[in-house]
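Lesson 9: reading folded outputs for more than one chain in a single document. The general rule is that every protein is listed as its sequence immediately followed by its structure tokens, and records are never interleaved. Here is the first one.
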Amino acid sequence: MQAITAAVLAAFVGYAGAWYFDKVEGNFALLLFLATVVTGVYWVAERVYFLPQRRAAAAKLEADAATRRAELSARGITQTDTVDIREAQQKILMQPWWLDWTAGLFPVIIAVFVLRSFLFEPFKIPSGSMIPTLLVGDLILVNKFTYGLRLPVINTKLTDGTPPARGDVMVFRYPPKPSLDYIKRVVGVPGDEVAYLNKRLTINGKPVSKDPRPDYFDEDAMRYFKQFEEVLGDKRHRILNDDDRPAFIAGIEDFPAKENCRYSVEGVTCKVPAGHYFMMGDNRDNSLDSRYWGFVPDRNIVGRAFFIWMNFGSLKRIGSFE
């Protein structure tokens, strides 16, 4: 079992190393699931087979010592060296390294697996597409049950939950490459006609309110951007516009239901198909979103982002957001 366990652990370490050095396309959900299954098998084997064996060996050691004392006493030998077998029993009962690194880790791994798969999952904001709502380096929590519980890895929905609403900040699997997680704001829900023309958002023919606010200074770009307050559904949030970027959308990809969209020099108008969502970043002129790669299907939803739990560059960032 030592050799088998060493091979299994080496496989996990090798996969993690190859992922770290970009040799393979990693899947943390799959890795965590496999770790849960493997350590769970060892945990059951420990409870059912290995631990009872060690306990039996410890009990046999004590019984052998008692038998030896009885035999010596029958011969009239009453003065014998006192041997403390407790230390030997403790060594016998101690988990070997290969069980300590598998069965011993199972309670922690399954707790992380359940928490991450069905309750809350942490993410780090890697880009500035959601500025000013979310900044690069924000560590956020994503609610995994609001939109319905889903099976890990395959993402099959178990419960319906509450459908995503306009204005929600949602994490989802990037449609062109589902191994990547993206975060954007829900702008259009199934059946909506979303228009973003001349940097003005309209939903089902009704312009979305866009009230001017003081200019926003981006410390990374070292420049000011025009800032507005927008209201989507019952969510009030800030957005940015860059006067130096044209309304025309360049670099459009092919995507399912692209025929639902009409592109022009002014921007884009799209009819959101059933079971899909139209996503946009709050940093409107610096966001690769549904305008470029299309709609997000329901099966790609990961969860609703709602809380910044840490930003090591600015602790005052901690708190909820919309």
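And here is the second record, again sequence then tokens.
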Amino acid sequence: MKTGMISLALAGLLMASQAMAQEARTLRLGMQGTAGDPQFEGVTEAARIIKEKSGGRLTLEIFPNSQLGTFTEMMEQVTLGELDFTLNPFGGMDAWVPRAVLASTAYVVGDFDHLQKIIASDWGKGIVDEMRTEHKWRMVDSWYFGTRHTTAKKPIEKPADFAGMKLRVPNSAPLLTWAKAMGASPTPVAFAEVYLALQTNQVDGQENPLPIIDSMKFTEVQSHVSLTGHLVQDQVILMSEDTWNALEPADQKVVMEAFEAGGALNDKLVSDKEANLVSDFRERGITVVEPDKAAFQEAMKPVYADLDAKFGADTVKTLLDLR
């Protein structure tokens, strides 16, 4: 009798351990960012919380530095359910949801808080819903990536200061459009070659978020940093809809809370770094220019008119009014 009870107890323990093993799951996140940058620190914090709050049943494995492919390839992997998470800018969703381009058009977004209002608006929710229903990308959170500014060997205080400048911009339609609207001559240069292009005057200036301007040492060959603030960018945490549906509601809650906490850490790291760099540049003898953005936004009005014609009258104004 005692032997039978022991056997039953052992069988129960075995079944329980098998059930726990079945529930255990490793989630995978692929990203372009590198170890040590704010986004990596944020997802690392999210991974810690996921493991802690799930009692170790859920773990998040992080693949930085484009180990799993380009951002386009990782997006496709999320659609297919081969990858659980990736990151991509909200405005960068325009390749799949064309009207999202407005969120990456110069001076439409005033700051990160404004971007959050745009995403939470009916217009933004429509894009979020289309991402989920058409591509199986569930938006978990939006994290601050940075605001893009301009460097040159002269101050940039008004659109006329861009006239005739050979300005390096990425091969991105919204940024090419912005450069042309300012009167600059957009010049394509591979990112790794920008420093040399600036040093040899192949290009007269470039634009990037302040942390990148600093890390790439562009101020060694550019005397002025002009805070043009033409584009505010985020990184959206995208989750496979199949993965989301496979999780129990309690685990869905754990995931949301973890990425919210990771986002708070990321946002603080980026904001603090940007604020510190402005004073740091000045201490290093670099001239930091704070232009009036109104004149730059005025120069974008023909671009806004084209976007309204394509996506609906007063669409740009509707988004601007959310500030």
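What the second record shows: Confidence is low (pLDDT under 50) at residues 11-22.
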